[in-house]
Every structure is written in C-alpha cells, then in structure tokens.
Amino acid sequence: MKRDGVSDNINRLKMQIANTQRKLQAGLAAIEKNTGHIHPATAGLQGAFTATTNHPVPEKLTTTSKRATAPVTEPLTDFQDDLWFGTIAVGTPPKAFTVQIDTGSADTFLPAVGCDATCNGHTLYNPAASSTAVNRTEHFRLPRSGNVTGFIFQDEVTIAGVTAHAQPLGAADHYPVEFQAANFPPDGLNRSSQLCFSKKNTFAEPIFSIKLADTGSELFLGGVDTASFTGAFRNVSCNEGNFWGIPLQGLAVNNEPVATAKTITAVLDTGSTVVIGDDAGVKMLYSAIPGSKDASAILGPGFFTVPCDSVPTVGLTLVNGTLPPDQFLSTGVESPPFNIAPEFFNLGVLQGNDCVGGVVSADGLSFWVLGDVFLRNFYTYFDQGKIQVGFATPS
Which among 14, 106, 277, 292 is placed 20 to 30 Å from 349, CA to CA? Predict the structure, then answer.
C-alpha cells in the first residue's frame, strides 16, 4: 500500500482484513479451550459505542470518477507501509528466513520442503536438514482467507543472536493466496513474543518493543530502546497477556469526543495494516467527519473515504491511558485520546478529493483491532510481566 495514491492492491488489503479476523478468532477460541475461560475480546461488545453528537450518516460513494541476556535489536523492513518483517535463523545448521513480526498471532510457521506450488518464491524450511528438528507428528490447520496447513516441528529459532531451543513451528505444505510470494514478501510469520518469553530467564525484563516506520523500524527484545523514543510512556493495562487486548472506551475526531463505550477490547496487532472495528462504531466515527463517504460499493464492505484536503486526526481513548504527572500538569488533560496522525490515517486517493480512511468496519466483530495505522504513531512496549503496554513518541 502506498500513501501517495490509493492502495495498488486493495484486494490484498481485503484478504488481510479477513485473515486478521480469522486468526484472532481462532486464537481466542484456543485460549478458551486451553485455559477454560473466555477471553474478554470474545465476550462481545460489552458496551457498544454511543455517539456524543448525532451526525448524518456518510453519503454512499457508488462510482469511480539466558538470565540477564543483554537486550538485542532486530531491524525490520517496511514493505509498502503494509507490513514489516525481520530475519530469523532456524535449525542446526541455522538457515535464514524472513518473517512478519505479528503480535496478533499465536503461531510461527514457515513454508516447508514438500509444500505445493503455493509456496513458490519463498525460502523453504527442511526439517530433515536440521539435526535439532523434532517431528511432533501433529497436523495443523490455521484458518485465514484460506487455510495454512502442514505439520508441527520443534527446532532452534534464533533472532538477533538470541536462540530459543525446542520452539514449536509449523512446517507448511500449503499457503492460501495472501501468503503467496506475490502478496507476501516474507517467507513466514513469527509471533513476536516467542523468543522473549520462551524461557522466563532469557532477559532480565520480559519486555519487547516495536517501532514501525519508513526507516529505522525495529523489534527490540529485553526492554526498550531509549534511542528510539522521546518523552515518557503512557501505560495501559491489558485485559489479558495473550493477544495484547486493551480496553477501548472512546473515539475522537480532531481531539473532540464523538463516541463513548463502557469498554470494548482492542487487540494490538502488528500483523494488520488498518484499524478494524464494529460496524456501528466505525459508522459513528465517519459520521463525525465532514465530507466522509461510504465507499463500500466501490472498495467492498467496511471502507470509507474522507476529504483529501482535510484528513482528520482520529483518536482512540484507552482506559488508564493517562499522561505522566508532568505532562498532565502542563496540559490540564488527564487522558487525551491516542491520536492517529492524518498521514497514517490516509491510505491514499481513491478519486478526486476522496481519500481512503485507515479505519474499516467488519460486520459481527466483537472486538477492535489496532493495526499498523495506529501503531506507527507510537514506540510501543509489550510487558508480559506486568501485563501492560506503553506508548511513547517515536524519535
């Protein structure tokens, strides 16, 4: 996706949105199965959004005119502002693979030797060539727009020089279209916390941090990279340590509240490009943006446009997302929204003065997904020990 024009592959974005819904729903179902309790994100919209002011519905747009291991950094590559990926080494001897770093996934998988033609163009993992690979003789099937299928192995996985032993990973024998090389440059996918938390004592702090940008993007394991952010963090407690769900309580446009809710779970997901919300809440958001239009007839369900010459700042209010004391005293505002800058909210020109908005809706979704459109605005840490995240200004 390019910011200087409308998405050059809107179909890829739509596949990614469907993929995001399915991967998170499958992962949340697995949590319920394995723990016996329901994750807050699957409990439904505990408090649906209520508009603070009634606005007209956007008009429809129908035509196109080891302990104390030192923290380490893994540089990430930006692909068209659409996804970010790094490099891992797998097996003995180690072989390099590129992987998308995905906070919204519970799985790590790679295309394997023996995969059908859907894996063409990717580097293939060969368990038989690794002396540390162990076949768990378990088949896996991950629902996406299609299914990623294959078998589960254990092997050594190394990132930025830190190795985790006997790590489970899927050796895929089939990729759905969104993971094929034409749509997905990295070889596979890696859940971001795998190496940081695979052993409790790998790092002194069970924290990883992420910066997503055009240049200088990174995954930092074992703490925070003080050179990559400025100012203090605004901390937010998570509903659960799994899937990094945080409580969303309001929506804002240009720092003015437009909708509030009791509490809705929002999942931080580096594997998703856009912000995805429930249909009613997203419509309230765009209804408060003058000149916005419903673009579903052109781009598909859930898409809206905003005027290119007045792209707004869209904000999300998060529970406990308070400012540090010194900033609170200087601004007089205890909990302002977490803002999405116009340059990240704008996905590109559709036609004329209509630009595609970076928040889309998905019918029947019981939680929100905060993808890269949101995360690019912050340097974000994820703390498994305290079960919280923090947001600071990227440098």
Answer: 277
Residue among 394, 38, 18 nearest 217 (CA): 394
| Active-site option among 155, 269, 278, 383 | 269
**Could you say which of 82, 102, 107, 294 is catalytic?**
102
The answer to whether position 54 is within a domain reads yes
Does residue 21 surpass a pLDDT of 90?
A: no
- CATH number of residue 100's parent domain: 2.40.70.10
The reply to whether 109 and 256 lie within a common domain is no
Burial of 383 (0-12, 13-18, 19+ CB in 10 A): buried
CA distance 42 to 21: 12
4 falls within a domain: no
- pTM, whole model, 2 decimals? 0.85
Distance of CA 359 to the CA centre of its chain: 13
Can you read off the two tokens belonging to residue 361?
């809706």
Angstrom distance (rounded) from CA 86 to CA 59: 41
Model confidence over 164-218: pLDDT tens digits? 899 999 999 999 999 999 999 999 999 866 555 555 557 888 899 999 999 999 9
Is residue 102 among the annotated active site residues?
A: yes
Q: Convert the pLDDT of each residue in 367-381 to its tens digit.
A: 999 999 999 999 999
Could you give the CA distance from residue 90 to residue 307 in angstroms, rounded to a whole number?
A: 47
